[in-house]
Amino acid sequence: MEKVEHYVRQIKAIYPELGIVSADINRDGQYNDVLVVNDSLIFRFAKVQDAIETLRREVAILHHLQDQISLQIPNPAFVNFTSKVTGEVFVGYPMIAGIPLWRKNFGKITNPVVKQRIAVQLASFLKELHQVPVKELGVELQIEDQPAYWTEMYAQIQGKLYPFMRADAQKEISEHFENFFVNLEQYEFKPKLRHGDFGTGNILFDSESESIAGVIDFGSVGLGDPAGDFAGLYSSFGEAFYRNCYSVYPEMEATLERVKFYYGTFALQEALFGFDNHDREAFRAGMKNYV
User: Fold this and answer.
1) For the CA atoms of 71, 137, 140, 11, what is the dihedral angle to 10 degrees?
2) If one looks up domain 99-287 in CATH, what number appears?
3) First-residue to last-residue Cα distance in the chain
4) Which CATH number among 3.30.230.70, 3.30.360.10, 3.40.30.10, 3.30.200.20 corresponds to the domain 2-94?
């Protein structure tokens, strides 16, 4: 409760007119704590120093995207960047109603019409996002997802994770990365604005209308390979669903091999995060198929 009270004080200091009746905290985020206020507002507080600039960039991009994306996305209405101290910097916005489209929730959907509707909505969202002119954002973005990034990740995996792995798992991962490195021309991409964390937890579903309610958590938004977002869809809902998106976003078909490469790194990235941040749960989850 002490942390909740601290966050409430930070909000009231900047927005004294905001009546706060209830506040509940979720500390599961890697970089931000989430405070649900009055069951209707989401406040995200930076809990590590790097998250402060990330939140600042995210707010600028979200404000620009409001009239360019057809699905609901967070619309920051409350911000505090006057401080540079973690636990004081925050962003707040109205909650988007809906439940995360976890695999178990998606698995309960049996109507093919509903599944196709979801595919069309998500493919349309990605197409809109990837077409946003980056020069109009007013934010300086570095190109991410470059080969050097994967070279460094491979070295980290070998040094930190291989000692805990079965020998056949090491061999499989080595082949996965080395096949990528010898076919780099196959993986070239034109940088686009991409979400960067397009997974089940950030896709909200409205069970009444049986449609997508919105997309949240733009903390990893940046300039990079659109196939990274495609890989989130592929990982979340499978290849058959992925192929259903082609009618809306035909470019997704040509990137399938790149998507499969990215997909093959997701668990390893979670394990690396767990290793580096002493998060045993994340480490175990990422490593479970390799030990």
Assistant:
1) -60
2) 3.90.1200.10
3) 38
4) 3.30.200.20
| CA 13 to chain centroid | 30
Can you tell me the distance from the alpha carbon of 94 to that of 78, in angstroms, rounded to the nearest whole number?
9
Q: Cα 44–46–47 angle (5° rounding)?
A: 120
3-state secondary structure of 244: helix
pLDDT of residue 258: 93
Confidence of residue 233 (pLDDT cuts 50, 70, 90): very high
Residue that is written with structure tokens 């991410």 in the block: 144
Report which of 198, 158, 196 is spatially closest to residue 177, judged by C-alpha positions.
158
pTM for the whole structure:
0.91
Instruction: Give mean pLDDT, residues 259-272.
Output: 96
Question: Cα(233)–Cα(33) distance, rounded to whole angstroms?
Answer: 25
